[in-house]
Design goal:
single chain; mainly alpha
């Protein structure tokens, strides 16, 4: 049993040490570019949706006569603006 455990430990150690050679050329720049493109795409989707929710809340607040509708309208406009900027940046 101890012999099998030793073989497994040695095999795992060799696998960890040789993983970069087996995987090929893995660069940090490729990984960073990949993550940044995903973040850009997600931001391009989420910000406009949040902006529309903010504008909807502002419309509801204005229709019911509540306070803070102007702030919610401004937040909605900023959210949509950020979504447009994120979509533009993710394409380039």
């Amino acid at each position: 049993m101890i012999y099998l455990k030793r073989i497994l430990q040695t095999g795992i150690t060799i696998l960890i040490l040789e993983a970069p050679v087996i995987a090929g050329d893995i660069s940090i720049k490729k990984a960073t570019d990949s993550v940044m493109s995903v973040v850009g795409e997600v931001a391009a989707i989420i910000f406009p949706v949040l902006g529309l929710i903010g504008i909807g809340r502002a419309a509801f607040t204005f229709s019911t006569g509540g306070q803070g509708g102007t702030k919610e309208l401004l937040e909605g406009i900023v959210g949509i603006g950020l979504g447009v900027v994120a979509k533009t940046l993710s394409r380039s």
